[in-house]
Specification:
Layout (H helix, E strand, L loop, with lengths): L10 E3 L2 E4 L6 E8 L2 E4 L11 E7 L3 E3 L3 E3 L3 E5 L4 E3 L3 E3 L3 E5 L3 E3 L3 E3 L4 E5 L3 E3 L3 E3 L6 E5 L3 E3 L3 E2 L4 E5 L3 E3 L6 E2 L4
Parallel strand pairs: 1-3, 2-4, 3-5, 4-6, 5-8, 6-9, 7-10, 8-11, 9-12, 10-13, 11-14, 12-15, 13-16, 14-17, 15-18, 16-19, 17-20, 18-21, 19-22
């Protein structure tokens, strides 16, 4: 039962969740228990509509195929790490949350929204993260360490909070923003 919509809600369970295409002008809210998430197309049929995707997974999750969404994406693991191994490109906001470590090894981009990265464990950023030049804060919060080995840029405020250390590894590790 979804507290937001009062509709019945069940959990999809398996090893790999593969979604081939979703209709535009939709709000997709999935409760899942999968190891891997793949999405083939979520850009709609070329119209101006948007699709918002919310995925709550109850174990560690790997996203290993390109995720392009004309809308916003929220991905949360309630148990286990969240590992992003493919480009995530959204026109709206992007929220990533893990009760364990959160690893980003491919580009994240938000065209017109904020990016929120939150982990109870460590956050490792090994690829560029960017938000729009005109809007979109970038918030990185970790209970443990935050390690950045690539460009992190925002047109708005960049906030990095860690319960442990905050480290940039080399000269390519740059945090850019008007108030970074």
């Amino acid at each position: 039962h979804s507290p937001d919509t009062s509709l019945q809600r069940g959990r999809l369970i398996g090893n790999e969740l593969f979604i081939n295409a979703l209709q535009e002008d939709a709000e997709i809210d999935l409760a899942t228990s999968f190891n891997t998430f793949r999405l083939n197309a979520l850009e709609g049929t070329g119209g101006s509509g948007t699709t918002d995707l919310t995925l709550e997974n109850d174990r560690g999750l790997v996203v290993d195929s390109v995720l392009r969404v004309n809308g916003s994406v929220d991905i949360e693991t309630t148990e286990g790490a969240l590992d992003l191994q493919a480009v995530v490109d959204v026109t709206g906001g992007l929220s990533l949350k893990s009760t364990d470590d959160l690893n980003i090894s491919s580009q994240l981009k938000s065209g017109q929204g904020s990016v929120s990265i939150e982990s109870s464990g460590n956050v490792d950023i090994n690829a560029a993260i960017s938000t729009s030049d005109v809007e979109g804060d970038l918030d990185i919060i970790a209970g443990g360490d935050v390690t950045i080995t690539s460009l992190v840029a925002s047109g708005e405020i960049v906030t990095v909070n860690a319960g442990g250390n905050i480290a940039t590894i080399d000269a390519t590790s740059v945090i850019e923003g008007p108030s970074a």
